[in-house]
């Protein structure tokens, strides 16, 4: 029989894989199930419920959860944007493993750029959500100086659509580039 630490480590590994490639792991329902299981394992169910309630109160989740909130802001569903919301929560709980250390400045530009521009400016992303195929959208996550995550959301063809940070109002947390505004 496996130990508790083995099971918890497995759940952490599955969660980290699911937020990076949500479509391969079953999307939002699987991510939520893994987060619920980790909250139970770490005896944080009350704290986790508070996080879920905060998602609803700030408009980052609707009756159709985060997918629904993303669709209301962007006008379409985006698995990588949805996964970034849960990655942010997992990061605050200490459950997200970042691939590298990287701290970005606190100021975000509202300019058009592509994925390579962001990587050139901030380095390899500690968190890559979505695949590497340039025909599909993806999200890069970097911690800022406060330790919070800043997300760069890319449209297909790797054009930056928006940046997002913070746990304030969900719609207001997006800063759209000119390319993202025209979409």
Q: How would you describe what is shown here?
A:
- It is a single chain.
- The protein is of the alpha+beta class and 183 residues long.
- It has one domain (4-181).
- It has helices at 4-20, 22-25, 27-41, 45-57, 65-74, 79-93, 115-122, 178-181, and strands at residues 127-129, 138-143, 149-154, 160-165, 174-176.
- The protein has a five-stranded antiparallel beta sheet with strand order 1-2-3-4-5, with helices on both faces.
- A hairpin with a 5-residue loop joins strand 2 (138-143) and strand 3.
- The mean pLDDT is 89.
Strand content: 5-15%
What Rg do the Cα atoms give?
16 Å
Apparent shape: globular
Sheet with most strands: 5 strands, antiparallel
Strands side by side in the biggest sheet: 1-2-3-4-5
E-strand count: 5
- Along the chain, the helix and strand elements come as HHHHHHHEEEEEH
Question: How many discrete domains?
Answer: 1
Please, what is the oligomeric state? single chain
**How far apart, in Å, are the first and last alpha carbons?**
52 Å
Query: Helicity level, as a percent range?
Result: 40-55%
Distinct helical segment count: 8
Give the uncertain stretches in residue-range form.
none
The secondary structure category is: alpha+beta
Average of per-residue pLDDT values:
89
Please render the helix and strand layout as text:
Blueprint: H1 4-20, H2 22-25, H3 27-41, H4 45-57, H5 65-74, H6 79-93, H7 115-122, E1 127-129, E2 138-143, E3 149-154, E4 160-165, E5 174-176, H8 178-181
Antiparallel strand pairs: 1-2, 2-3, 3-4, 4-5
Helix pairs in contact: 1-3, 1-6, 3-4, 3-6
């Amino acid at each position: 029989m496996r130990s508790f630490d083995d099971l918890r480590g497995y759940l952490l590994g599955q969660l980290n894989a699911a937020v990076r490639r949500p479509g391969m792991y079953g999307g939002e329902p699987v991510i939520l199930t893994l987060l619920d299981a980790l909250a139970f394992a770490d005896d944080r169910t009350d704290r986790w419920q508070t996080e879920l309630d905060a998602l609803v109160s700030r408009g980052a989740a609707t009756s159709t959860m985060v997918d629904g909130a993303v669709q209301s802001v962007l006008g379409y569903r985006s698995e990588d944007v949805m996964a970034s919301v849960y990655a942010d929560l997992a990061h605050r709980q200490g459950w997200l493993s970042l691939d590298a250390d990287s701290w970005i400045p606190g100021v975000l530009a509202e300019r058009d750029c592509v994925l390579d521009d962001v990587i050139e400016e901030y380095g390899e992303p500690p968190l890559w959500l979505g695949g590497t195929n340039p025909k599909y959208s993806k999200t890069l996550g970097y911690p800022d100086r406060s330790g919070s995550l800043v997300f760069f959301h890319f449209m297909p063809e790797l054009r930056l659509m928006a940046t997002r940070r913070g746990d304030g109002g969900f719609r207001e947390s997006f800063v759209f580039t000119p390319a993202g505004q025209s979409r």
